[in-house]
Amino acid sequence: MSSVSLSNWKAVEAEVLSRIHSRQWEPGQLIPNESDLAEEFGCARATVNRALRAIAENGLLDRKRKAGTRVATNPVRRATLNIPVIREEIEAGNHSYAYAVFSSKIEEPPLNIHATMRLNGDEPMLHHQSVHLSDGKPYVASDRWINLDAVPDILNADFKSISANEWLVANAPFTNGDIAFSATSGDASIAERLGAKSGEALFAIDRTTWNNDIAITSVKLVFHSGYQMRTVL
Amino acid sequence: MSSVSLSNWKAVEAEVLSRIHSRQWEPGQLIPNESDLAEEFGCARATVNRALRAIAENGLLDRKRKAGTRVATNPVRRATLNIPVIREEIEAGNHSYAYAVFSSKIEEPPLNIHATMRLNGDEPMLHHQSVHLSDGKPYVASDRWINLDAVPDILNADFKSISANEWLVANAPFTNGDIAFSATSGDASIAERLGAKSGEALFAIDRTTWNNDIAITSVKLVFHSGYQMRTVL
DNA sequence: CAGTGGTCTAGACCACAAG
DNA sequence: TTGTGGTCTAGACCACTGG
Hints:
By secondary structure, chain A is α+β, with helices and mostly antiparallel strands.
């Protein structure tokens, strides 16, 4: 067997993954503790810890103090999605980027936005609607609410040179947020802005962000027909 | 300032995040190197490393040898999605789970499946279609192709007691996979299986998995109307 | 070439939780 | 109570890469 010394955590990770995939260690089974593995592999316990922690973060191992480390029975696979700035996503594909503002005005948010953002009173909100274009074609429509109490300076932003999203990324850091992915039948106005057929199935992202419990912004992005969000497992 | 000693990596992480959020360290700016921060915080360099690595994995820092560590300019936010076994997702919501097989037969895959799975020859494929039910209502429709060369034993599986997905999770570990999220107008047959209106917008996941370059399975999941996939940022 | 992050080590103590 | 993972330390060497 592996009497050779596994002297780095990537090698340890590979060996452990191999034992899991080959069913030498079966789902649900308790694997040896870190000290024993360190001895077997001829490396420090910290190295084993690094490898096992990486695997556990990926969902293939369950680790508990005192109870030990087990091979996950129903591995909950984790997929990490990159949520880029739209302009960069478009330019990364060698397309030209542009965007257009449809409407930008201060008004009362509807109840669902009020609830989603967990607003307390009736903070003044900026309602900002725009479309991002790739090679001149509609790419994604954005319907955004911005809490002016949190970022009053946004009223001075020049949305001819920078999108609301990029202004916020650069000027309003957030500490936490929610994101949801769904499918929507774009209503007539959204469909028109995207150049889609009315009622066509469109991919949507709803994202709300806070800075230490102060709501910053909530945005609904509706993508052009055929859009896919991809990643690896 | 923080003349107190930050003696664990979570505290260091919090302090660094605070400096980023407060703009004490601005986007694009080079931050002190690990040794200097270790000295300032009164902890070991390894502790600083652990904290900075965690932040970098989340996209808020860019680290390069020799070049040092910079605050990310356009933080590419990463969202980690948990992809559970359908049964567990349903049962976690305290609903009853069931599923029904519509069709299961060996046949030639269409060209797009052949390409997606990167098949070489004309491996025999099992085409398996089913629906998962939550409290008796359609939850998600599954259209799956399985490479019988990779998992011949699946022909002996009893799909009355276990779904194809769960059989594969338990018996055919994979080393890597692709996953894509999209919106689809379910065709008439899918819509019917899901009890959805024809043409209604539905959330879909396409997932293909391999075991060391041997394709295992490719599945399209189409969820019931209104389904959302959520996570935090 | 030289500065930075990446990693390994040996040992130590701690925190949690199973029995 | 006690075994296990979680973490910290001080020091060392390595690997990458900018200048």
